[in-house]
């Protein structure tokens, strides 16, 4: 399928590893251009060295106002076709293990910057009457994950924001969707495995095998599989899909509308 994104420009948050890196590579293979944002300059430099004419890198913390201002400045000077709103999650903790300071930090790292960046970008998408906004959250927005209370709470808030926004800007040619990944072979899964091992006294390998056995397809997903869906949602083909939270979890969500 021709995704019709050749020479299109996308903002990719958290582009240095995990889902952000996988989506970046998929977009670049489709001859799109990206603004790659992350804190680790060396990882972004690796991406740019492979696709020198298609990648612009921005090194910075997405929860930092200066980074968001820089991204808005870049977007204001070019035609931006879509944005992947994505970053790592907060510490793995149970509800009673958390401090109020950790709740404040999680609000900043999981929710606040996403709302601010989106509000900065929407006026540019509205002006051109086209845009694709895609949030990467977690299956926890449909089925809470034990010992991830901060993620469970604030990622659900992102979904509420995305759904509400989707109603408000749909007629402007802008779609807003959420991808809710389950267990994938990315660095993020390691913190979950480590926490469960610490709580249970089991080995990391035992926890990993147990997690895989509980996934209906019998394995964890890959970044490439996730990226194939994300890139379609960022393409012109997805114009009739908005306000949706779509699982990518190997069938793990038990609910009827998983």
Condensed summary:
Helix content is 46%, strand content 15%. The chain is α/β, with parallel strands linked by helices and 258 residues long. The longest helix is centred in the middle third of the chain and has 29 residues, at 100-128.
Strand order of the largest sheet: 3-2-1-4-5-6-7
Counted by DSSP, the helix tally is 8
Q: Report the β-strand fraction as a percent range.
A: 5-15%
- The backbone outline, from C-alpha atoms, is globular
Whole-number mean pLDDT: 95
User: What fold name stands as the CATH topology?
Assistant: Rossmann fold
Oligomer state of the chains in this structure: single chain
Total E-strand runs? 7
Taking Cα atoms only, what radius of gyration do you get, to the nearest Å?
A: 18 Å
Q: How many domains would you count in the coordinates? A: 1
Structural class: alpha/beta
Major sheet? 7 strands, parallel
Uncertain parts = none
Order of helices and strands: EHEHEHEHEHEHHHE
| CATH level-4 homologous superfamily | NAD(P)-binding Rossmann-like Domain
**CATH architecture designation:** 3-Layer(aba) Sandwich
Top CATH class = Alpha Beta
The separation of the N and C termini measures 27 Å
- What percentage of residues falls in helices of 4 or more residues? 40-55%
């Amino acid at each position: 399928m021709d995704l019709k994104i050749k020479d299109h420009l996308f903002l990719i948050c958290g582009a240095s590893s995990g889902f952000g890196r996988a989506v970046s590579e998929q977009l670049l293979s489709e001859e799109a251009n990206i603004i790659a944002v992350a804190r680790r300059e060396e990882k972004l430099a690796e991406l740019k060295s492979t696709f020198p004419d298609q990648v612009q890198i921005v090194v910075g913390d997405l929860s930092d106002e200066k980074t968001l201002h820089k991204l808005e400045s870049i977007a204001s000077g070019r035609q931006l076709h879509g944005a992947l709103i994505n970053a790592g999650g907060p510490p793995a903790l149970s509800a009673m293990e958390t401090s109020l300071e950790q709740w404040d930090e999680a609000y900043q790292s999981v929710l606040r910057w996403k709302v601010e960046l989106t509000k900065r970008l929407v006026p540019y998408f509205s002006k051109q009457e086209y845009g694709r906004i895609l949030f990467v959250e977690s299956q926890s927005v449909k089925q809470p994950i034990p010992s991830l209370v901060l993620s469970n709470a604030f990622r659900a808030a992102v979904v509420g924001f995305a759904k509400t926004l989707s109603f408000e800007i749909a007629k402007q040619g802008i779609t807003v969707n959420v991808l809710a990944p389950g267990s994938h072979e990315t660095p993020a899964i390691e913190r979950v495995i480590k926490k469960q091992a610490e709580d249970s006294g089991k080995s990391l390998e035992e926890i990993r095998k147990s997690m895989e056995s509980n996934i209906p397809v019998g394995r964890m997903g890959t970044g490439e599989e996730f990226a194939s869906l994300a890139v379609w949602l960022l393409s012109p083909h997805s114009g009739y899909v908005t306000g949706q939270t779509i699982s990518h979890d190997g069938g793990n969500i038990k609910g009827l509308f998983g």
